[in-house]
Amino acid sequence: VFTLNSVVKSINGKERVKSITIENLADKREKEIRVDGVFIAVGEVPHNEIAKMLGVELDDQGYVVVDRWQRTSVKGVYAAGDITGGVRQIVTACAEGAIAALTSAEVLGKKYPY
Q1: Full-prediction pTM beyond 0.70?
Q2: What whole-number distance in Å separates Cα of residue 10 and Cα of residue 35?
Q3: Is residue 16 domain-shared with residue 60, that is, in the same domain?
Q4: Which residue from 13, 37, 48, 65 puts its CA 20 to 30 A from 84's CA?
């Protein structure tokens, strides 16, 4: 369940989560919703000041646009992790970082061994 303009007032259940109670910030009404789990997410704004200074292409939300090899629109500039949007998980950021490192090594004339 994705609900805007609301806050969680309580997470209900003894052994496991059974429901949540949310309050609508506009009209102050509370509503109970049956759920199996609760995942916390916060808004995120990309910190793209360096990318802007370099003239790197950004998408409409301010994230750096990259190709499948993590190359940006500026030759020799690579980006990986949360700044590229998409899935914001540490495992994804690590994988993208590895791709960017291997791709940049090729530009420097270094071939990786596989």
Answers
A1: no
A2: 12
A3: no
A4: 37
Q: In a 3-state reduction of DSSP, which class is residue 105?
A: helix
Neighbour-count burial of 46, counting CB atoms closer than 10 A to its CB (0-12 exposed, 13-18 middle, 19+ buried): middle
pLDDT per position as a tens digit, 71-91: 999 999 999 999 999 888 899
Domain range for 103 is: 49-107
What is the total count of domains within the chain?
2
pLDDT for 45 = 86
| Integer CA distances (angstroms), 71 to 16, 55, 57, 78, in order | 44, 13, 11, 5
Supply the Cα-derived Rg of the chain in whole angstroms.
Answer: 21
Do 78 and 71 contact (CB within 8 A), yes or no?
yes
Tell me the HSE value of 22 on the side-chain side, using a 13 A CA sphere.
15
